[in-house]
Design brief:
By secondary structure, the protein is an alpha+beta fold. The strands form 5 sheets. The protein has an 8-stranded mixed sheet with strand order 10-14-15-22-21-20-17-16. Strands 5-6-7-9-8 form a 5-stranded mixed barrel. A hairpin with a 4-residue loop joins strand 6 and strand 7. Helix 9 crosses helix 18. It comes from Immersiella caudata. One of its GO terms (biological process) is asparaginyl-tRNA aminoacylation.
Amino acid sequence: MAAVQELADRTKSDAKCYIDPTIGKDDETADGSESKPYQSLYHALLQHLDKPAPTYLTKIAPKEGSTDAPAWEEPAKSALKKAVGRVDVYKKKLAKEQAAANKEEEERQRRLKNLEEAKKIVLMEDESLPAAVRIKLNNKDVTLGDGEIKGTRVKVYGRILNFRAQKSATFLDLKDGYGVLQCVLQAGDLTKCYDALMFAQETALVLYGELRKVPPAQKAPDNRELHVDYFKVLGSAPSDLDAISNKVSRQQDPWDAQMLDNRHLVLRGENASAVMKLREAVEMAFIDTYREMEFRKVSPPAMVQTQVEGGSTLFKYDYYGEEAYLTQSSQLYLETVIQSLGNVWCLEKSFRAERSLTRRHLSEYSHVEAELDFIEFDDLLEHLEEIISLVVDKILNNPVSAAYVKLLNPDFQKPSRPFMRMKYADAIEWLNKQDPPILNEEGNLHVFGDDIAEAAERRMTDIINRPIFLTHFPVEIKAFYMKKDPNDLRVTESVDVLMPGVGEIVGGSMRMDDYDELIEAYKKNGIGHEPYYWYTDVRKYGSSPHGGYGLGLERFLAWMANRHTVRETCLYPRFMGRCKP
């Protein structure tokens, strides 16, 4: 009651403050006058915390049925006590916040003072030490200090991945795109200088020191650490609101708008960069494997005037007044050079104008394509099994690329051979025999002629859980150039290679080698053959049985790296540099 009595004593003045619970406002539009009353006693008290207190008057409505006018009366003691209690709580909160702000300001001033003092410390390299050898962080061929044995003094460049400042030392995890190295800065000038106090993730620097083995019972990458004797910051990084950890985070969805806009920063993360490094390893494995198989690499054009996979997915553009397209596939060009170069392959960009945001669609993707001369359909299947297996073996047999696979997909197993062979008609029957049946996109049982949807195809592959050669697709759902099976003219000698977890990674077929049959295929598909004269001539001048395939590099990589979408395997999955508000 003391607080209430104190307030009552303070309110004995001529000034008045009006409170109307019905029409009053607890905001800046009210001033406590009779014409602009507050709504609550609590808010009125807050407005006079540091001012002489007025007499508080609350509007009392007349009893029901009464003709009396509303009256202004001083609040009841119980109402005043309740309001004062809330004010006391608010004042304590204010005091706590002020204390915290004071402490923060003291800390800021102390830090500013320390930073000013730190600027006086000038680091100098000790000229009496052995000359430092520059190495990359993946270089393991360096003598490590151990006990009284001196290690090699090295110079390393990189950026701070993580750091922790302790009383006795500051520990940095340095990265350079090749490896990670723990660096130890013993307490002293090295840790008290201005640059050390301003360390942040992604700070770029060069460090000098002795490489030593990590003490027993402690852990560090490659069981070694750099004992720093000198360093120099080459490029600072923000540690405030602009810090990289505030821009991108492992916990965020990498495909939300903010993360895509900051893809250039996402790529600095361990997983994203590992995917890019594995991608390079996959490309190199294909290059080496094709070279060993004596395939010649060619570079077909990306700007074309013919279609390969249907006109609906063509990116059109004006080529100096003529209609032209970005290529859907290099296959037609590859077919025209096997006669003089032998088996050929390429790794080029292909483009599909499919406005489809699915797990496996890209408008621009890297296309591994190959054409083989003088083969039968079984030869094509055997080659596909061989090339996929050899590429996977090369990646897993290389300790560097194998480590990326282990990081990204710890449970990855190379595909078991032989791959399962299943005809399209048998797949239709298999889908319908499941309990419950795996239905088509219309919600019905599959029938011969359906283009088996991705979801059904993936589910079948995951249940069977082994690589599948899905073969002999109907003529109506495949491209015009695919050769018909001579034993069943309803279907083509075609194949999709399906892998558990990702679905289709390769599509291939035997190509029509008969001139008249190809001319008829043009007509049936409504394609004028004149622009394809160069392709048709292949059948006129020494035609031969041949076949080929296309492999989406991003799908192959998504399979090996266990990525949910093929977009995750792209350096930049959408345009960058768009204007942002």
